[in-house]
Design goal:
- It contains eight helices and seven strands; from the N terminus they run βαββααβααβββααα.
- Strand 1, helix 1 and strand 2 form a beta-alpha-beta unit.
- It is an alpha/beta fold.
- Helix 1 runs parallel beside helix 8.
- A seven-stranded mixed β-sheet has the order 3-2-1-4-5-7-6, sandwiched between helices.
Length: 225
């Protein structure tokens, strides 16, 4: 039987798919029913409520969590909506540590200061068509490493690279890369089952496949309880 992983705040399952590719059976949790969710099982519930059920959490050898990032996002800053989005990273950490489970917490680059000793993954590490920096904090006995962070090679007009945001067309102010169309996003992210809105919030599965394989290796040698 495959080891069981739990993906909290799963949305349509970018993190879930990577864990599946690493060999896990994955249950997703989200407070909104996700018709496109790609996992093996789904729980429609508030992730914080689920984390308070210690017995449930301890059924899983790995718990991953992607608390909403909007409290620190550039878009929320531009629109003055950050106050509507609480920082759920601290309560997520507190609940996972209280349960004593191996865990990984993910969030966007502007929120790295809220993570404890995170590794940072970038699409260039996996030959993807996005940069999409994301931080990953590990706890509960897990240790993580990141591949070498290559120099960003994307250039304006380079058809490989796109910026995946909440809109299509135009060009990213930050890195000068075209936003592209849905097909470009799918290719660049390694995702073919989501809407563009879902992809704008997702992480590339390659990131959690990398993490999941490290956890699998640690499980095999008994480094993770």
């Amino acid at each position: 039987m495959k080891p069981e992983a739990l993906d909290l705040f799963c949305c349509a399952g970018g993190a879930t798919r990577g864990l599946q590719q690493a060999g896990f059976r994955v249950t997703g949790v989200d407070k909104v029913r996700r018709a496109n969710y790609c996992g093996d099982a789904f729980v429609e519930s508030d992730a914080l409520d689920v984390m308070r059920d210690v017995a449930f959490l301890r059924r899983f050898v790995l718990v991953t969590a992607s608390p909403p990032c909007q409290f620190g996002s550039a878009g929320a800053g531009r629109w003055g909506t950050r106050d509507r989005h609480p920082n759920l990273i601290p309560p997520t950490r507190e609940l996972l540590q209280a349960a004593g489970v191996p865990y990984v917490i993910e969030n966007i680059e502007p929120n790295l200061r809220h993570l404890v000793d995170p590794i940072v993954l970038c699409g260039e590490m996996f030959d993807l068509g996005v940069f999409r920096h994301r931080g990953f904090e590990a706890g509960g006995g897990i240790t993580l490493t990141a591949p070498a962070h290559l120099r960003h090679r994307g250039r304006i007009g380079d058809g490989k690279y796109v910026t995946v945001t909440g809109k299509s067309g135009g060009r990213s102010v930050r890195d000068g890369i075209q936003h592209g169309a849905k097909a470009d996003w799918q290719r660049a992210m390694g995702i073919d089952w989501m809407t563009t809105r879902e992809m704008a919030q997702a992480i590339p599965p390659a990131y959690t496949e990398w993490i999941g394989r490290q956890v699998m290796a640690q499980l095999a040698v008994g480094a993770v309880a």
